[in-house]
Design a protein that fits this description.
globular; 2 domains; about 45% helix; Rossmann fold; about 270 residues; two-stranded antiparallel sheet; five-stranded parallel beta sheet; alpha/beta; homodimer; HAD_sf (chains A, B); Acid phosphatase 1-like (chains A, B)
């Protein structure tokens, strides 16, 4: 009888220990593929609210969701993990792969008039070191112009490696890179230094937003592209992280959308 | 001593049972958010090759990847689970939510000239019962025109519930739905029956591809939308699963992309 009591006591401890373990470590018992696609854990169908962020991000990337101002609070962690994890890099690499394949297949004019338009922030350069700060929270905290400008002035933004690869391919093919950015003209020198430091060292034009450019991003970028076309250039490609880079007038023969779930520029 | 032996024996059974359970059910012990976003399982960093399909699908949905002919073989299971699981439905619901919010905020002419363009396949109606067949494999097996036409002729395609919601909202607001589909004219009756059966019962026009419409999807849909505009209609919204529904001429005041990782129409 005493032995039975000990046995019962021991097995209870094991059972309790197991149960609390499951809860603590968030162990998920589900077939792997299903698990990754279904926003549920466990066979009981417990829903993880944060996984609605998958639909949110898809809506952002396809431009179904427009004029949003902040990353939803419940998606702050999701966006952080996405940006710092491998998936963001993989998604960028996939876009770059398509752009490189497209560029290599182009029949060029050979007259030096073929250009490729590159946006800068979150396209050629990454502000992730800034956006990962706790007072920025991947875009879940309201944009602070003073703070962001201070970061830009440091000139420390790293390249997005895969887009640097697009740039190098484009250059090697004889297509002239043109940077068009919403950054203000007074940051021109610091941007030049930053771009060159990380590997972007050659371009036909670096167009920043002047004092008189007061319209929307679409208007500004459209007008600058139209000037290029009027000057006889052919925009064979156009790559940016915002849809405002890729819509409007003279968008180019083909556009490429780089992922960016951190902010929306209208 | 005998009691200790029993105790040891019992606890071994528990331990072995637990261990084999872990293996059998594919239990993953990792922090939930990291796990879902990083294409790895376990702390050892084992990569799941299939998860490259996340980047592939994003490239499809953003139109970075164009003119693709088949779902990559390694993504067949991924696409299947996505389409049959909750994520596809959630993604559709998210698009529908944006479209409904946009429609409700519109200032309408009140003259009966406001129209909303709906695509049919994979937008208002779902061919998922067909695409889930083993000889179709969610688009991982080459398209078979005869088989697909036989399915269409059955007139059994269900509605996509969330897009039916968009349709009902649009109707209730006094915006006239217009269907423009790449389906051939000889399927007109069966499509009408199918649409009505699942809840789409009212439209200003149902435009199918005629014998003389031999161009690309973009050309066909652009020309039909242009006819609408020339007839004095204002296209306030446009929803489709293919980018060819949403680019070209007179695309409408705003477009909405419904997810579709099963096929690409150029």
């Amino acid at each position: 009888m005493r032995c039975f009591t000990i046995l019962l006591f021991f097995s209870s401890i094991v059972a309790v220990g197991l149960a609390s373990n499951v809860e603590d470590e968030g162990i998920i018992s589900q077939v792997v593929e299903i698990h990754r696609l279904r926003p549920q854990t466990g066979s009981a169908g417990y829903t993880v609210p944060q996984l609605d962020c998958l639909s949110w991000r898809l809506a952002v990337e396809t431009n179904n969701l427009q004029n949003w101002r902040l990353v939803p609070k419940e998606c702050e962690n999701y966006v952080g993990h996405y940006m710092l994890g491998k998936q963001y890099r993989r998604d960028c690499e996939y876009v770059a792969k398509q752009a490189i394949e497209y560029a290599k297949a182009l029949k060029l004019g050979g007259d030096g008039k073929d250009v490729w338009v590159f946006d800068i922030d979150e396209t050629t350069l990454s502000n992730l070191p800034y956006y990962a700060r706790s007072d920025v929270a991947f875009g879940a905290i309201a944009y602070n112009n003073t703070k962001f400008n201070a970061w830009t002035a440091e000139g420390k933004a790293p390249a997005i490696p895969s887009i640097l690869g697009v740039y190098k391919t484009v250059l090697s093919l004889g297509i002239k890179p043109v940077f068009i950015t919403g950054t203000r003209e007074n940051f021109k020198q610091v941007r030049i230094v930053n771009l060159k430091k990380v590997g972007y060292s050659n371009w036909a034009a670096l167009i920043l937003k002047g004092e008189n450019d007061s319209g929307s991003a679409v208007q500004f970028k459209s007008s600058k592209r139209t000037e290029l076309v009027k000057a006889g250039y052919r925009i064979v490609g156009n790559i940016g992280d915002q849809w405002t880079d890729l819509i409007g007038e003279n968008v180019g023969a083909r556009t490429f959308k780089v992922p960016d779930p951190m902010y929306y520029i209208s």
